[in-house]
TrEMBL record, chain A:
<keyword id="KW-0472">Membrane</keyword>
<keyword id="KW-1133">Transmembrane helix</keyword>
<feature type="transmembrane region" description="Helical">
    <location>
        <begin position="172"/>
        <end position="198"/>
    </location>
</feature>
<keyword id="KW-1003">Cell membrane</keyword>
<keyword id="KW-0997">Cell inner membrane</keyword>
<keyword id="KW-0812">Transmembrane</keyword>
<dbReference type="Pfam" id="PF02653">
    <property type="entry name" value="BPD_transp_2"/>
</dbReference>
<keyword id="KW-0813">Transport</keyword>
<feature type="transmembrane region" description="Helical">
    <location>
        <begin position="57"/>
        <end position="76"/>
    </location>
</feature>
TrEMBL record, chain B:
<feature type="transmembrane region" description="Helical">
    <location>
        <begin position="12"/>
        <end position="33"/>
    </location>
</feature>
<keyword id="KW-1003">Cell membrane</keyword>
<keyword id="KW-0812">Transmembrane</keyword>
<feature type="transmembrane region" description="Helical">
    <location>
        <begin position="215"/>
        <end position="232"/>
    </location>
</feature>
<dbReference type="GO" id="GO:0022857">
    <property type="term" value="F:transmembrane transporter activity"/>
</dbReference>
<keyword id="KW-0997">Cell inner membrane</keyword>
<keyword id="KW-0813">Transport</keyword>
<feature type="transmembrane region" description="Helical">
    <location>
        <begin position="122"/>
        <end position="141"/>
    </location>
</feature>
<dbReference type="Pfam" id="PF02653">
    <property type="entry name" value="BPD_transp_2"/>
</dbReference>
């Protein structure tokens, strides 16, 4: 299966200087696009930068950006986790029903429950991919169905509403420090933690090693299976946390909560420079990708683009971002192996 | 890593297993409910999965060549919207149909050009066009629905072949299935798909025109999606922008369950058709037996996982046994 890697995987894993410079350049160009977009929109509609609209934007982006963190870990290893939307939906409902059955449940326990359930679902994915050798696309497409089916079976037409939730929990989305909602701060903290982990820890670097060249990673003494399993468990746990935050943000959760979010998440990661071919990408880039998609969405609203055209424009921009990103990456990769064949 | 060493033989085994499971499912279904093995029910069953079955044919070709097309369901939505808009604008139906099919081919061509000319991965491209084409469907039709299609045409969508219980679209599917099977299994073009899927570099060195072949595959995939859109629109007598949302996952689930390797180079039309009907039969039988819908979703997901996990585990057992029996044929790839 590795032969499909063909030419670009033959890139020598050496040359970190060029690689980091390239990554930095890609993040810089994303930030530039972002600034131009925000500037133009704000010039045309001053309300775009009002506190309320920025707060809504941040809350909307935060949940996707959080799920992208876990997805990045998996994508770095050349796998993919399509089941995140179902994990999010399931944990959102289950943590909500904890509040229904135990109205006095301490809020941190709800978070722990969400993370724990998410991690458990991640174990299923990880075992299938790492030890069952089921391709991640197939395994997580399967569990996307299974987890959502379990969700529907448990929910059984019911729904959680804001009135079921303790006030201390709901303030998580409404409360703010210096205008920044708690929810956004928490997501930022998770992103920074994983950024540092991927950058500066041995096991964090292993994600890149596994995705760049599995055989080399094995020869380097990395326990690839364990790394893959851990990646999926983390992705599940983070999606579980996102489920709890989704509950706090929206208050109302039914069995369809979060459906389809997996494509947004993957799109954000890819736009943010995380290569689906593995081994390349950063949490910061992926986060900027999520922000960019969110800004495009709200800019279209602020610019009063015809409602039914908005999705088409978003799709076209997404496609453009993906194409430009991959073409730039390819050009850089080609420059790096200038001396070798082709 | 754990890919079996004798793909041809193990593939035959998988097809036989799928077809065997279809028979078992039919038997169990007939036990579960007396209405199961009746003409009207089987007619209804096959009618319900005809769009998935149609798109699965071209998806088989695409996945065998180690590519993927996630935009098929959005293409269905876009083409259905166009058909609705043209009909609402009083275009003659043959012209509207032609334009719809052309739009599908164009959508596929766009995917194909991005993949072959720019060298972008098809997964990324078609996630992008999944959003784009669905968006264009809304741009074309908004949240309106066009429903006043003439009975002559809608009858082709849900009507039966006179004197039988066979839905008319299933006849079209049967013809296309035979054509696809012949093309994939008995023409140089079909064989070249396996070569490209198994090892693109080697296929290139062997002189195969990889780019042109892939471009053609995406066009075919778009064209088939447009045809499925026509069937869908007439079958429900309704053109809406959100027609067939999420259908791509069902199609891919069927293709993979049918034994096509997601890494390309392996698979057969028979296996995929078996898988489409296996999923349809199981869902129909469970519905008749009053099994709730969510269990059907779980069963579909489990089938998909087991379709790969099962052969993998079997292959692992087999190789460890072979290793014990003979050491002459070690592990040379």
């Amino acid at each position: 299966m590795t032969e499909r890697l063909s030419s670009n995987a033959a890139t020598p894993p050496t040359g970190p200087n060029l690689l980091t410079r390239l990554l930095r350049a890609r993040e810089a160009s994303l930030v530039l696009i972002l600034l131009v977009l925000v500037g133009t929109t704000a010039a045309l509609n001053s309300r775009f930068l009002s506190a309320q609209s920025l707060r809504d934007l941040a809350l909307n982006v935060a949940i996707v950006a959080l799920v992208v963190v876990g997805q990045t870990l998996v994508l770095l290893m050349k796998h993919v986790d399509l089941s995140v939307s179902s994990v999010l939906g399931l944990t959102a409902f289950l943590s909500g029903s904890l509040f229904v059955t135990h109205p006095n449940l301490p809020v941190p326990l709800a978070f722990l429950a969400g993370i724990g359930i998410g991690a458990l679902l991640g174990v299923v994915n990880g075992l299938l991919v790492a030890y069952g050798k089921v391709p991640a696309l197939v395994a997580t497409l399967g569990t996307l169905y299974v987890f959502r089916g379990v969700d529907y079976a448990i929910v059984h037409g019911g729904q959680i509403t804001a009135s079921n939730l303790p006030a201390a929990f709901s303030t998580f989305a409404s409360g703010a420090v210096l205008g920044v909602p708690f929810l956004v701060l928490l997501v930022l903290a998770v992103m920074i933690a994983f950024s540092v982990y991927l950058r500066s820890y041995r096991s964090g670097r292993e994600y890149y090693a596994v995705g760049s060249n599995v055989d080399a990673a094995v020869l380097a003494g990395i326990d690839v299976n364990r790394r893959v399993l851990t990646g999926f468990v983390l992705s599940g746990a983070i999606a579980g946390l996102a489920g709890v935050l989704y509950l706090a943000r929206f208050g109302t959760v039914d069995a369809a909560a979060g459906s389809g979010i997996e494509l947004q998440v993957i799109a954000a990661a890819v736009v943010g420079g995380v290569a689906i071919t593995g081994g390349v990408g950063t949490i910061a880039g992926a986060g900027i990708g999520a922000l960019l998609l969110g800004v495009i969405g709200s800019a279209l609203v602020a610019l009063r683009a015809p409602a039914f055209w908005q999705q088409a424009i978003q799709g076209a921009l997404l496609l453009l971002a993906i194409s430009v990103d991959i073409i730039l990456a390819k050009r850089a990769a080609r420059a790096m192996q200038e001396r070798s064949h082709r | 890593m754990s890919v079996p060493q004798k793909p041809a033989r193990s593939l035959l085994g998988w097809e036989a297993a799928i077809l065997g499971l279809v028979v078992v499912a039919l038997l169990i279904g007939s036990r579960l409910h007396e209405a199961f093995l009746t003409g009207p029910n089987l007619s209804n069953l096959s009618s319900n999965l005809v769009e998935i079955a149609l798109i699965a044919l071209t998806m088989t070709l695409v996945v065998v060549a180690a590519e993927i097309d996630l935009s098929v369901a959005s293409t269905v939505g876009m083409c259905s919207a166009l058909l609705g808009v043209l009909w609402a604008a009083h275009a003659p139906m043959p012209l509207a149909l032609l334009a719809t099919l052309a739009l599908g081919a164009l959508a596929g061509l766009f995917n194909g050009l991005l993949v072959t000319r720019l060298g972008l991965p098809s997964l990324a491209v078609t996630i992008g066009t999944l959003a784009l084409y669905r968006g264009l469907a809304y741009a074309l039709l908004g949240d309106r629905a066009v429903a006043d299609f003439p009975p002559f045409w809608t009858n082709l969508g849900f009507g039966l072949v006179p004197g039988t219980q066979i839905p008319i679209p299933i006849v079209a599917f049967a013809v296309l299935a035979v054509i696809t099977a012949v093309v994939l299994h008995a023409t140089p073009f079909g064989r070249s798909l396996y070569a490209i899927g198994a090892n693109e570099l080697a296929a290139r060195f062997a002189g195969l025109r990889v780019e042109r072949t892939k471009l053609l595959l995406f066009v075919l995939s778009g064209l088939m999606s447009a045809f499925a859109a026509v069937v869908y629109t007439f079958r429900f007598s309704s053109a809406r922008a959100d027609n067939a949302v999420g259908l791509e996952l069902a199609v891919i689930a069927a293709v993979l369950l049918g034994g096509v390797s997601i890494f390309g180079g392996r698979g057969s039309v028979i296996g995929v058709i078996g898988a489409v009907f296996l999923i349809g039969i199981i869902q129909n039988a469970l519905t008749l037996a009053d099994v709730p819908n969510e269990i059907l979703t779980i069963v579909t997901g489990l089938l998909l996982i087991l379709s790969v996990l099962g052969p993998n585990l079997a292959a692992r057992v087999r190789t460890s046994r072979e290793r014990r029996v003979a050491r002459s044929k070690g592990g040379a790839p």
